[in-house]
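Inputs:
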Amino acid sequence: MSDTIARQLALVIDLNTCVGCHACVTSCKEWNTSGWAGSMTDTNPYGKDPSGVFFNRVQTYEAGTFPNTETIHFPKSCLHCEDPPCVPVCPTGASYKRPEDGIVLVDYDKCIGCKYCSWACPYGAREFDEESGVMKKCTLCVDRIYDESLAPDRRKPACVLACPAGARLFGDVTDPDSEVSVAIREEGGYQLMPEWGTKPGNQYLPRRKSKRVIHDDELVRADNPLKKEGPLPKVDPTAPSLDDVTSW
Amino acid sequence: MKPAFSVIFLTTLIGAGQGLFMALVTGQFYWVIGATKGQDDGSFYAYGSLLALVFLGFGLIASFFHLAHPERAWRAASQWRTSWLSREVIALPAMMGAVVLYGGLHWLEWRPELMTFGNLKVLDLSMAMGYLGVIAAIALFVCTGMVYACMKFIQEWASPLTVLNYALMGSSSGFVLAATYAAVLGSPLTDFFTSGALVLTVLALIGRLTSLWRNGRIKHLSSLQTAVGMHHRNLRQISRGFTAGSFNLKEFFHPGGPGLVRLLKTVFLIAAFLVPILLLGFGLASGVSAGLLGLTFIIQYPGLLAERWVFFAEASHPQNLYYQKVA
């Protein structure tokens, strides 16, 4: 399938930047429940045992042993695999991968709600909508990214626009010069569960150790001709003062 | 995986129907080659086919309960090039059609001779239709098994044993059903069907024990490390990202605890295999009766339902790695 697509739009998520604020989760739900892919049904939202459809979640993991631990905030949505196992198993052809941009979508008018495609996704990216009886999933905001009524810099998935930390990049991963390809190449981008050969379009940038090197000369003030270090002399509080004279 | 009851009933009911039909055709074949003394008249095969059709039909009805949009079910036949589920959707009605034709030919006693072999044995139309039906039944077993076996990352299912066991367990219950049916009608094929049921049940037990042994020592390729892509030895989930319910929590986890799985494993090994083997063996040794065979079917069928429940519950889906902890 990968040799027949013109390009592969996807997300690159920087785990080194993600702060786990869930803004991408809420913006995704807001945009998509009111848009083409909606509604994203909530069952019993204010009662006991609420449940609901989400296309994107931010999970939190911890590595290491206290006190040497690291927290990883991990957004997870459909990875728009180059070889999506969920597509060929669909008995009706409702599940498909678009040749023009590699986005994996569900045709709600053809879906019979057998849930077989969700069994075939190792990532658990698909969610069944009980109310409409069809399978739903991340559309990469297909109803936003081609909308010419929006300014060009707003034609991005809602989650990317919402991220306050800039942890989510969007673009064509088959174009070697795109922002996402450069990030994957230079920051060590990787795919989830490579053992199943699904070749996810979305990739993740790993946690990186952020180090700052301080040289010795940076510890000495350059504008200190008398080479006197220490607290600056305090002004006598009883002395008359003018702001431009006692500048400290 | 969550055991889906519609699918549990679908696979066990059509398995019995397929097995019953295969038993009827085998019985006719044995008579044709002269291995049995008496011959049943056409109505034996016609009513037997009708019984098989009832089981296949109820299986088909059960399958519709799995669909959220059953009115669009016809679309499910379209993707036979890539989807085993689509192939199953085609194979089941094809099988039912073959059963109707086979039963109809026997009912009408319309058996034109198609060819005569060198040893003067004759292939008539009903026998030929029977062969086609058996091919359809085997194809249906393969499709049903492959629906599960093709999921390579559900490693408990991704094995030829899945297909083999679906075929063996279906055939076993079908032959028990055929033996009961033959005994009720006093057919000379009763002993033959009972022997066949005994052999198939023993083979099914061996197949299922092998898959239990395999699944007990399976090494899962996916881990939290590959799921998140962080290769730290001590990695754990702190939060799945939400406290409420979701499809991911319902569909891929079975509702019982490990105790229930162990209990049902014991139940199905006893009810679906051991007790039927004992009853069939006892029957062959001391003379079979319709009551004994009927009792065997009544004990075995719930056992097979429990087997299918465990088949689902045992399967661990890699997506569960992402849903380990609420907060």
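Chain B has one domain: 5-322. Flag for discussion at group meeting.
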